[in-house]
Amino acid sequence: MFWFLIILEIIVSVLLVVAILMQSSKGGGLAGTFGGGQVGMMFGVRRTADFLTRATQILAIIFGALALLINIAFLPRVGSSGESVIQGQGSTQQQGTAPQLPPSQAPIQTPTGGK
To answer: Is residue 52 part of a domain?
Structure first.
């Protein structure tokens, strides 16, 4: 379920970007590049602008709702103490025992040719 919602969120975000870029701006936007002029001829210029504005609003609402749903329902919660994860790690280190250092190795003495 989690991955389904993540994939749906990605699809909605791509559609939202396309809907925003298709809208005509002062510079013309990408509406002309992707055939926005032909859509304007089919629906009429005013109806196309209304459709793209409404689609942007709906996709933005869906995007926000999915983001909240994923965050609230699927992401792990911090403990009930209200501490952040970093604060929780700091307190466990202080309460734990001191880290054990590996035993130092004495230098190996080689026999010399003397007495």
So the answer is: yes
Place of tokens 């989690």: 2
CA atoms within 13 A on the CB side of 37: 3
Three-state DSSP class for residue 87: helix
Residue 35 lies in a domain: no
Query: Rounded CA gap, 10 and 15, in Å?
Result: 9
Residue 54 lies in a domain: yes
pLDDT tens column, 5-53: 999 999 999 999 998 888 876 555 555 555 555 555 555 556 777 888 8
Domain count, the chain: 1
Sequence letter at residue 77 = R
**What sign does the dihedral 110-113-114-115 (CA atoms) show?**
positive
